[in-house]
Amino acid sequence: MITTNAGWGARREAHVPHGVVTAHPVFAARASGSLLWDVEGNRYIDFVGGIGVQNVGHNHPRVVAAVRAQLERVTHAAFQVAGYGGYVDVAARLNALVGGGEPYKTLLVTTGAEAVENAVKIARAYRNVPGIVAFRGGFHGRTLLGSTLTGMSAPYKQNFGPLAGDVYHTPYPDPYRGFSSDDAIRALEELFATQIAPDRVAAIILEPVQGDGGFLPAGKAFLQALQALTRKHGIVLILDEIQAGFGRTGEMFGFQTAGIQPDLVTVAKSLAGGLPLAGVVGRTAIMDAPAPGGLGGTYAGNPLACAAALAVLDVFEEENLLEKGRALGVTLRAGLDELASQYAEVGTVRGVGPMLALEFVAGGDPFKPDAGFAQAVIDECRAGGLLVIKCGVYRDTVRLLPPLNTPLNVAEEALEILRGAIGRARGSKA
Description:
Blueprint: H1 5-15, E1 28-32, E2 35-38, E3 43-46, H2 49-52, H3 61-71, H4 85-99, E4 104-109, H5 112-127, E5 131-135, H6 144-149, E6 167-170, H7 181-194, E7 201-206, H8 220-233, E8 236-240, E9 264-267, E10 278-283, H9 284-287, H10 303-318, H11 321-342, E11 346-352, E12 355-360, H12 371-384, E13 386-387, E14 389-391, E15 397-400, H13 408-429
Parallel strand pairs: 3-13, 5-6, 5-7, 7-8, 8-9
Antiparallel strand pairs: 1-2, 2-3, 4-10, 9-10, 11-12, 12-15, 14-15
Helix pairs in contact: 3-10, 4-10, 7-8, 11-13, 12-13
């Protein structure tokens, strides 16, 4: 029996391809709430949460109980063969949460990338034109279309081409580097003038806060201007809420911070508290555009995952998770701002609510990203008992994705570990 991280690492090397990256050389044995223990018994504060999946925390009792009960009834039936209430109930609750009283429908699938692909299919079926506009720095999955939509070359595109056609990229707002919302709208209008006319665009897709791209918020002004532009041209506006959704920004969904109403919304990650479930939620007229049989999947809307999702949504309602998330965000933001004032290597602190990150640069220059320093901080955090991961086009940003119900004393402990990690990284650099 293997009982060490090194032992499992050796076995992994022999059996898992190099293309699958594991951020930390540790192997999880158990987890609860905001904490994770590896096979050697080492305790970590987990500020990764399965990459934004555990907004309700690891092994939440409500989720565990719901899955256990469902396991004794039906584990799989395939919704295209025989319906079951869990699928319909999840759809109804998502329609109410996203639709704001308007007629919306929901397609359930298994992964975030699958949700994105289906959103594009639905938009194209509705508009009957092929063009899709995405944003530089955006991340939308590792499938062929997901990689095409993603606005980063490495590692997602590599030599995987030719990629999907009729996809166009335009700049995303980045105030830290002097690129404003107005600049981004002008760039989009220039794309319409030079590369694809708006009447050939089926949809524009973006994250309200870029996740893997560096925790860049689109901002209220940009999202409102983008909605006005898409409505002017009849273009479907798709908000990818896979990482920003379910309380990560302090609101249930990131688009709500801007007071807009998107046409389609993709959801996944924290929807089912660790079980694989994703979805497309959208206006009924758009969702009904594909002909019968064009949507679905063997495991899509699996009964176990649906039971977990219903429990997750109950937790949000009954345990005031949005309020807890906002309080957590205030604590973390104050701590990160203090670190930024102490260490010149921290170029900026950014994010929304409890979705926060530190970008590391050399000499305080926004155009000198320091990926090496960011990695050193991540490694030192792990040594101190905190798990975090990187993001950003240049991989120079450390992102925090703690469960929203993380106790504030645990958050303070995490900030102290991060403080020490930056200090040690600076010392080793010198």
